[in-house]
C-alpha cells in the first residue's frame, strides 16, 4: 500500500490519532552509538578548542574520547577506555576536517594547535543556549576537558 492509499483509507475509515500534548516527553540520553556521530564529535571539538588551552592535533582523538568517557553516563568508570578507539579517532578526524573546511576551526601550522574561529565560537554558543541535553552535555565536556588539562598540568605534562 502506498502512502496516498494509506491516508485515503484512514480517512475513509475515520481513523484519527488523539494526541493530547500533555505530559512530559521522554528524556533521551546519549548512548554508545551517539559517540561516533560526526555532529557530536564536531561539537566536542568546538567545545574543547574554544577556550584558552588549545588542544594539539596529535592528541585530539584521545582528548575527545576522554571527554566523552567522562561525560556520557554509560562510560563513567568504564574499563572500555574509548579514547583509544580507532573508530572514534577516525571519525574525530573526519569531524575535524569538516570543521576546518567550513572555517569553524583553524590548525596552527607551527604549533599544530586547534582553535575555534569566531564563527566556530558563535555556532557553538548558539547551539548550546538553554538547558537542552546537548547544552548540558557540552558544558560537561568543557568541564571534563578542563579537568584533563588540570590533571596533566599537575603531572607536569602541560606547558
TrEMBL record:
It comes from the Bacteria. This is Uncharacterized protein. It comes from Paraburkholderia rhizosphaerae.
Amino acid at each position: 500500500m502506498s502512502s496516498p492509499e494509506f491516508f485515503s483509507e484512514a480517512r475513509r475509515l475515520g481513523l484519527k490519532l488523539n494526541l493530547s500534548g500533555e505530559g512530559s516527553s521522554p528524556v533521551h540520553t546519549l548512548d554508545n552509538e551517539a559517540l561516533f556521530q560526526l555532529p557530536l564529535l564536531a561539537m566536542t571539538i568546538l567545545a574543547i578548542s574554544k577556550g584558552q588551552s588549545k588542544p594539539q592535533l596529535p592528541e585530539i582523538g584521545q582528548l575527545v574520547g576522554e571527554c566523552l568517557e567522562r561525560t556520557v553516563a554509560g562510560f563513567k568508570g568504564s574499563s572500555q577506555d574509548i579514547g583509544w578507539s580507532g573508530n572514534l579517532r577516525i571519525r574525530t578526524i573526519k569531524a575535524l576536517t569538516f570543521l576546518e573546511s567550513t572555517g569553524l576551526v583553524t590548525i596552527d601550522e607551527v604549533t599544530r594547535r586547534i582553535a575555534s574561529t569566531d564563527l566556530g565560537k558563535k555556532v557553538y554558543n548558539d547551539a548550546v543556549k538553554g538547558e537542552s541535553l546537548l547544552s548540558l552535555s557540552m558544558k560537561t565536556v568543557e568541564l571534563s576537558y578542563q579537568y584533563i588539562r588540570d590533571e596533566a598540568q599537575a603531572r607536569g605534562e602541560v606547558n
